[in-house]
Amino acid sequence: MESELKNMNSNPPTSKEERPLLKSESDVSAAIEELDKKFAPYARTDLYGTMGLGPFPAAEKVKLAVAMVTLVPVRFVLAMTILLLYYLICRVFTLFSSPHREEEEEEEVVQEDYAHMGGWRRSVIVRCGRFLSRVLLFVFGFYWIPERRPDPETICSEEGETDKEEPERPGVIVSNHVSYLDILYHMSASFPSFVAKRSVGKLPLVGLISKCLGCVYVQREAKSPDFKGVSGTVNERVREAHRNKSAPTIMLFPEGTTTNGDYLLTFKTGAFLAGTPVLPVILKYPYERFSAAWDTISGARHVLFLLCQFVNHLEVIRLPVYYPSQEEKDNPKLYASNVRKLMASEGNMILSDLGLGDKRIYHATLNGNLSQLRVFHQKEE
């Protein structure tokens, strides 16, 4: 597949007369349509088109114009107020408290968080975080979020169990990944820890909040064999959450990237290496005009269009805790595959073998074709 895409854009012509491919606007549109078919898990199928660039119907342009001068400013101010309020709450209730630290030989401080802080102050941080996350979703237009919990007896897994007489605490929550909004929902539902880039911990406002969540900060795997890396850090946190009820629950997106919500990519094994029970959660974003899926569209444009929608929709399917069989504990790939199949079946999603590398190829090729399309539009003008 990668070679096919490279052939589409390789061997650039030396002159304008020697361009056999994509001679016209229709050729470029056909190439984009073909790309969308090959990389269906990442393609946008809403009214706003590929990369949110339209073309927009006249009625939609009017709606956007009205929303930008009425709805967007109000929502933006409210969202920033909520963010600042929660930052102040985190700041006040972590005063005079030392963060929990984990050190390694080759790193000064690998992890630093306030999620291991106990007592009433931790309770205030969690309760306020869950409440304000839900308020923020409300501000974004998610006025109601229906949750469905299938009966464990109606769910049949190939290997593991979804019900047990003596329930164990799941070591990790696993979810499909569609948008940055996924994080807000999970914060409102269970306030778990996430895996984040180390730079997130240094951001204004968000940095302290991420430490209160207990985020696992990661960077590229070190080459030294003594460095345990991302997988080792996550594995330890999963085991800790499983053993200790007071430890922060960790939340992982095993696909490793976002999709348009209709597909489920191959799961990475990080969440399943420890062999502990997992809690699968499925997020669906039904839409009529604009899809909340964060694919092929810039962050600023996505937030703007999201705020322009008066009502946005989110549906949640919370599956029972999945208890792995001994065979699954011994084989993390099998464990991940069986949980993935179960989530795809219950969430009515299509399994896809594409991954992050394919997504990058799709985006790069798509950007090239859209650049040509803009040239055609400029010539027409």
TrEMBL record:
Xref: SUPFAM superfamilies: Glycerol-3-phosphate (1)-acyltransferase
Residue ranges, annotated region (Disordered): 1-27
Top-level lineage group: Eukaryota
Membrane spanning residue stretches: 64-89, 124-145
InterPro entries given in the database record: LPCAT1-like, Plipid/glycerol_acylTrfase
Comp. bias (Polar residues): 1-14
Keywords: Acyltransferase, Lipid biosynthesis, Lipid metabolism, Membrane, Phospholipid biosynthesis, Phospholipid metabolism, Transferase, Transmembrane, Transmembrane helix
GO biological process: phospholipid biosynthetic process
Sequence ranges of Basic and acidic residues compositional bias: 15-26
GO cellular-component term (any): membrane
Pathway(s) per entry: Lipid metabolism
Residue ranges occupied by any Phospholipid/glycerol acyltransferase domain in the UniProt entry: 171-286
Cross-referenced Pfam families: Acyltransferase
A GO molecular-function descriptor: O-acyltransferase activity
Compartments reported by the entry: Membrane
Family annotation (SMART domains): PlsC
Family: Belongs to the 1-acyl-sn-glycerol-3-phosphate acyltransferase family.
Protein name (Swiss-Prot/TrEMBL): Phospholipid/glycerol acyltransferase domain-containing protein
Organism name: Brassica campestris (Field mustard)
Upper taxonomic lineage: Eukaryota, Viridiplantae, Streptophyta, Embryophyta, Tracheophyta
